[in-house]
Design brief:
Blueprint lengths: L1 H22 L5 H6 L6 H11 L3 H14 L8 H20 L5 H9 L1 H34 L3 H46 L14 H7 L2 H13 L1 H8 L7 H29 L6 H8 L2 H33 L5 H22 L3 H15 L1 H5 L9 H21 L13 H22 L13
Helix pairs in contact: 1-8, 1-14, 3-8, 3-11, 3-12, 4-12, 5-10, 5-11, 5-12, 6-7, 7-8, 7-14, 7-15, 7-16, 8-12, 8-14, 8-15, 10-16, 13-14, 14-15, 16-18, 16-19, 18-19
Amino acid sequence: MWTWGLLGAYTLVLLLIGWRGRRRLHDTAEAFFLADRQLSAWVAAGSLLASWFGAASTIATYEDALQHGFSAFGWIGLPTVLTVLILAMAAPWIRSLPTVSTPDLLAMRYGTVYGHFVRGVLVAYMVGLAASQAVALGLLLRDWTGMGYTAGVLCGLAIVVTYAAVGGYLSVVITDWLQWLLILGFLGLLWGIAWPVRTHVAHPVPTSPGELVRSTHLWSTLSFTIAWSISPIGWQRIASVRDPRHVRTMMVIVAGVFLIAYLLVVLPGAWWGGTHPGTHRLGTVLRISLSQPVFALAMLALTAAVMSTLDAALNTGVYMIAALIRIRRRAFGYALATLALAVCTGWIALAHRNIIRALGLSSEILVVTIAVPIVLLRWPKWTHPWGAWACTFVGAGIAAAEYIGGTRLPPALQWPHGIPWGLTLSGICYAVGTWLGRRYHRPAGVDSPTVTQ
């Protein structure tokens, strides 16, 4: 009774928020994706917190802490804090741009067609990010309600698609705040469960440099930090703030809140794992520690954490599609695009049932395809469209091989161990393409903006 009552009430609230957001929504892209740039810094901060604190931040991080202790902070917590600090430094520059789209910046240097291709790459990234949350949603609803994994994925996607497609970015921001409040309550529950056993720690903090590097998952940290720094989700929140003077302060505060939030996940996991070394599932910990009503509330909070990232990924993915394809009937077209992305998301979630792997594969798409062209925007003498195309095509092939080959590839080529090889290969292709292009071809009609912060 508690399970279905809470889930039904929560779903109804989300749908009502989406409908009210539709009533306040103008039929323009600026309103649908940026809320007319009229959000306060604190509203945008809450949305960013909820959007980046999803399945990997809660379920995967806690379960890794149960087995490996404090080193679980290196999986998601460390790259999240690093990414927000990087965006804090770049926030005034991002807020001054007329667009939150990195493809527009790349198009000015490498050509319009290349910019369109990069939008397609970003759509693929958003689908992969959404898929990692859909995996968690299927597992959560399976453990909570007893429905099958496939049914959980499809039901969760149907709910998110409904309110995100109807209400746009504004409804996503409002639901993010509701979900963030539920997440805070969940963090309090974790702390309360683990506090009595806090003297026992599973695998304490690393002491030697080698152990520290291994425990912080060096290559996954690099992969996530690069991908999330150039992901449009953070840029979208920054650009939607009404007063640009408060943006940098907002981002620094968000970084501090993230640091505390991840410690509230990792430390309880390390404490509980030290006392109950055979425990590997968050759902198991909650079920044996909480009464049925409180357990249902905790699972609802976890579901909210997953949905807050899932709706952000779908909304930003539709923004990329809208910039790529001219949609005339915007309300209907945006809804249809959201549904199409959800179908692709569900397909990947059913094929890759591992949260961290799905999230890592999505980050690899950005790292091996467009990270090098973006970084070199600041050095115009080292850039050429041929180099960007070579890098992106080869990177896209590497990412596709990971999705198709999966665990059948040699371990050294699988994410995250394949990140340095993929990044090196894409960089070599960029250098060779740039050298050939500068020797045999002078591009015409490509602007040369000064990209500085």
